[in-house]
Amino acid sequence: MRDEQGPSGSVESRDGASRPLRVCVDGPALVAGAFRALLDTLPGLATATPATLDASGRRTPADVILLLATDTADLRPLQRVRSGYPGIPIVWTASNWTAAAVQIVLQAGAAGCLSDATSVEEFGAALRQAARGEVALSTDIARDLIDRLARHSPEPSASAAHLSPREREVLLLVCEGMSNKEIAQRLYLSLRTVENHLATVYAKLGVSSRTEAAVLAVRVGWTSERAAPRGLEPARDGYRRPDVDRNAMSHVR
Amino acid sequence: MTGPAHEAPEPLPVHRTRLAFVGTLGTLHARARGYDLARLRSLVERVEPDLLAVEADRASWEAADTTSIPPEVLASLAPAARLTDTVIVPVGGPSGREFAPPATGGLANARASVIRGADGLLDVLARAFDSPEGASRGLYPHLCALLCHIEYAAASEAGRQAWRETNDRILANLLQVIRSDPGRRVMAAVRCRRIHWLEARLAVLPEVELVPFECLTQVDRRQLPTGRPVEA
């Protein structure tokens, strides 16, 4: 059972005594030393080795481990620390986070990701958060993740506005069950351009397949705007004549 | 005191469209003539361009009015496109009587004879160069262009006007194709007598690179930049 944190960020142990949050810093000696010196200046925090002997001689593990590793794509330092000190929350600090790297690192068991744009106070707060069992992220990383989530949200009304007229036209033809080649022939675009449009549509709608995109379009009611049939369309049995609706074509041409 | 020299901004990169012309010999003016369509078809299947501009009236194409679509498009180019990833784009339009001789006036008969003679010579030459390669490069296009100039000079004003209007429409439609989907490999299959006229106008455009049709092969496709999606 974890000790409870007091209002100052210090930890209140089970015997009621208040003690500072013990932070173990793992990383290159010089950088780790600088971080230890920095953390020691913060109230309610104290640097420690992973297992420090307290006044009564008991081994008291660190409350949180601060991992300093520059290559966020290399998970070996995280795995090493996790296996060496199981159960202790690990906060990884680096300078080159990407949204994908944050996701992978959190899935690999880290309790938080901090960037070098983090202020000293934010650092202390994040470490306390991690010690409480919460996910700790720097403000800039959190903001980036939220932006990406918002962009990929399948919220139809918001996403519809982001589709260009051409992308919307391609999506409508997908809803009609057309293959990419048929769409290309209908719009007089190359197959690769249609594929590019579709990839953009998927990204904007936050879907990964034409079926998902079509389902979303149908659910939202975009399919009520039908694209006009046009041209001799390639079909399995040769070129077929579409049912030409001149009124429907007027908005496309 | 002078400030730092300001360099001229570099021109923005342009996705150049590779465009190759293939001469078709299926019609001489409005008259259909015997023509080896299998070679044209195999050429399209071999090159497999991204877009194949054909000399068909867009309205007829969209209405699937096969009576107005040239036989080489129906029998050769469209089936080839269907078997590949190539997309057909009709760039033609309804045309009047191109190079129609004058009905009346001085030297009307002589001018009509010149046009008939040039047509006859073109027919003979087309039989001699009866292949997409022969119709698109080498001696034939030059002879074709020369005879075309002669016919143009001998034609009535209405015949010249019809020729110019049809060419202008094809040029405008080709440019629309190029600009709405830049950076693609476009093959334009048009009557070979138009090629010199169209090439002269397209050669000066920075977004167009005129190439022989062998340069549009699939191997080359991988080396081309990915075209950016463009709003039409």
Topology:
The complex is a heterodimer of chains A (253) and B (232).
Chain A: E1 4-5, E2 11-12, E3 18-19, E4 21-26, H1 29-39, E5 45-47, E6 51-53, E7 59-61, E8 64-68, H2 76-84, E9 90-94, H3 99-107, E10 112-115, H4 120-131, E11 136-137, H5 139-151, H6 156-162, H7 165-175, H8 180-187, H9 191-205, H10 210-220, E12 233-235, E13 238-240, H11 246-249
Parallel strand pairs in A: 4-5, 4-8, 8-9, 9-10, 10-11
Antiparallel strand pairs in A: 1-2, 2-3, 6-7, 12-13
Chain B: E1 17-24, E2 27-28, E3 31-32, H1 37-47, E4 51-57, H2 58-62, H3 71-83, E5 87-92, H4 108-128, H5 132-136, H6 139-154, H7 157-180, E6 185-191, H8 192-202, E7 208-210, H9 218-221
Parallel strand pairs in B: 1-6, 1-7, 4-5, 4-6
Antiparallel strand pairs in B: 2-3
Describe the protein's architecture and organization.
The complex is a heterodimer of chains A (253) and B (232). Chain A has 253 residues and is α/β, with parallel strands linked by helices. Chain A folds into 2 domains: 4-149, Rossmann fold (3-Layer(aba) Sandwich); 156-249, Arc Repressor Mutant, subunit A. Chain A has 11 helices and 13 strands. Chain A has helices at 29-39, 76-84, 99-107, 120-131, 139-151, 156-162, 165-175, 180-187, 191-205, 210-220, 246-249, and strands at 4-5, 11-12, 18-19, 21-26, 45-47, 51-53, 59-61, 64-68, 90-94, 112-115, 136-137, 233-235, 238-240. Chain A has a 6-stranded parallel beta sheet. The model of chain A is unreliable at 228-253 (pLDDT under 50). Chain B has one domain (17-218). Helix content of chain B is 47%, strand content 15%. Chain B has helices at 37-47, 58-62, 71-83, 108-128, 132-136, 139-154, 157-180, 192-202, 218-221; strands at 17-24, 27-28, 31-32, 51-57, 87-92, 185-191, 208-210. Chain B has a 5-stranded parallel beta sheet. Chain B is globular. Mean pLDDT of chain B is 80; it is low at 1-6 and 219-232. Classes of the chains: A alpha/beta (253), B alpha/beta (232). Chain A binds chain B through residues 164-167, 181, 184-185, 187-193, 196-197, 200, 230-232, 234, 238-242, 244, and chain B through 50-51, 61-64, 78-79, 81-82, 85, 87-90, 177, 180-181, 184, 226-232.
